Amino acid sequence: MPPQSPTSPAPGPAELMRTALGVLGAMAQDVEPLGSMFADAGHELAVVGGPVRDAFLGRTSQDLDLTTSARPEETEAILARWGTTWDMGREFGTIGARRGDVVVEVTTYRTESYDPSSRKPVVAYGDSLEGDLSRRDFRINAMAVRLPDLTFVDPFGGLSDLAAGVLRTPASPEQSFDDDPLRMMRACRFAAQLGVDVAPEVMAAMSALAPRLAIVSAERVQAELVKMLMAPAPRRGLELFVETGLADVVLPELPAMRLEIDEHHRHKDVYAHSLTVLDQAIDLETSAAGPVPGPDLVLRLAALLHDVGKPATRRNEPGGRVSFHHHELVGAKLARKRLKALAFDKATTADVTDLIALHLRFHGYGEGAWTDSAVRRYVTDAGPLLERLHRLTRADCTTRNRRKAERLAHAYDDLEKRIAELAEAESLASLRPALDGVAIMRILDLPPGPTVGEAYRFLMELRLDEGELNEADAEERLRAWWAARETPRP
Questions:
Q1: Do 31 and 48 contact (CB within 8 A), yes or no?
Q2: Contact 253/338 with Cβ under 8 angstroms?
Q3: How many Cα atoms sit within 13 Å of 100 on the Cβ side?
Q4: Range with the poorest average pLDDT among 33-37, 175-179, 433-437
Q5: Which domains does the chain have, with CATH numbers?
Q6: Over 60: is that where the pLDDT of 271 sits?
Q7: Greater model confidence, 130 or 20
Q8: Would you place residue 368 in the very low, low, confident or very high pLDDT band (cuts 50, 70, 90)?
Q9: Rounded CA gap, 152 and 144, in Å?
Q10: Burial of 470 (0-12, 13-18, 19+ CB in 10 A)
Q11: Contacts (Cβ under 8 Å, ≥6 apart) of 375
């Protein structure tokens, strides 16, 4: 839950229950027939986990997790009479089904044991709802609503924890996290998504068992990291991620930025600066109709990691000054390596690392007026990332010096104005030479090959330096370049 202001106390369990009644009533309309079908067949059925938790927060969901006393074959037969079914993971007891817009995943009651070298459970079917709830990750996710009568089941006090804004585990946290280390990442994610704190014993267990996270696949870790970053308040989760040592295992570049004072002599380390840049970048995301609809994963990753090259490039200069020369290029390489290790897709990795490499380019603008050529190159190098680069560059200003902040903001306002003016005059969005490869081959009587690419790059440099040329002028300059190229040098 979002943190409450002093004048707005956190809602208690009774108020949360009242909030849930309307949501659960709407939910019952979607799944009550299914509950009756299972009951008629002699089986129990209950909504469980996130949908129940979210109902108390006033949130509805069309994707419902349910648990049942029925075995998978029996579940599948009942669901087939309700809607369209598919195998979600029969080996884990889960069958999926859809009816209209409602999607359900129904899993047989389970008890589990774990191999210490793996987070994959050895599944054994259980015989009670309470036993099934005992194996859930956190108490706020160990609440259920029995169907079809909507009986609320909360054997571990999840509603009280939700009202208090705290995460606790049904079993001991040491056992829970040792069984499934990914639950520690989920704690960070829920801190970011729900604004909750972790209980002291939970945080202690996370710190002690952080190395266990190394057995979890990169894909599963990445999925939790993405959910954390896309949450309303990722900073809260990231701070827990670093403080408990989990980041040392899967994203060590983040805690490595602590205590690395940046070159502007701010009274905070690069780690704190990066979290502030992330907050400010989120504030600059747009609505769905804007150029950078939030939440935007690429922008958020770039904001978080834009200074990861500083620890490796830190140098003590004369006069007590600290420098981080070329940290943007080193940081782009480090980020690419880490994102690849975390199994991010190639497009996301390329976009994030390009933004990191470009994030300092603007600072040359504030030191002196750029030529039109420099503005064109800025736009061309950013390409489709330009709107994100605008936001990353603005977010990177975290100085407490108001005059300096205003000067940087005005300088970037001026750059964006220049870009807009050139874009209107020269179609910067589709910046290209007047002659394409086909025209080059015709004019110079060339076959396809690297020489055509060399000629195209020459024309592109002309376009960037001098603006738009008509085809006749471009052909004349191309022929002159070709003649000079072909003339033997003494």
A1: no
A2: yes
A3: 5
A4: 433-437
A5: 13-164 (3.30.460.10), 169-250 (1.10.110.30), 260-430 (no CATH), 437-486 (no CATH)
A6: yes
A7: 130
A8: low
A9: 6
A10: exposed
A11: 415, 418, 419, 422
State the pLDDT at residue 91: 85
User: Count of alpha carbons within 13 Å of 131, Cβ hemisphere only?
Assistant: 12
Buried b (16+ CB within 10 A) or exposed e, 244-275: bbbbbbbbebbbbbeebebbeebeeebbbbbb
Q: Global pTM?
A: 0.81
Sign of the four-CA dihedral 353, 355, 356, 357: positive
pLDDT at 487 over 80: no
What is the rounded distance in angstroms from the CA atom of residue 87 to the CA atom of residue 109? 17
pLDDT tens profile 348-362: 999 999 999 999 888
Q: How far apart are CA 57 and CA 143, in angstroms?
A: 13
| Amino acid identity, position 53 | R
Q: What is the pLDDT of residues 372-412, one digit of tens each?
A: 888 888 888 898 899 999 999 999 988 777 888 888 888 88
Enter the tokens of residue 226.
């993405």
pLDDT at 2: 41
The size of the chain, in residues, is: 490
Instruction: Check: CB of residue 102 under 8 Å from CB of residue 141.
Output: no
The interaxial angle of helices 327-341 and 297-305, nearest 10 deg, is 120
- Measured CA to CA, the distance from residue 8 to residue 107 in angstroms comes to 39
Whether 78 has a pLDDT exceeding 80, the answer reads yes
* Of 336 and 422, the one with more pLDDT: 336
DSSP string of 87-154, one letter each residue: EEEGGGTEEEEEETTEEEEEEE-EEEEE-TT-S-EEEEE-S-HHHHHTTSSSGGGS-EEEETTTEEE-
Q: What is the residue-averaged pLDDT of the chain?
A: 87
Cis status of the peptide bond prior to 295, with omega within 30 of 0: yes
Is the separation of the CB atoms in 168 and 203 below 8 Å?
A: no
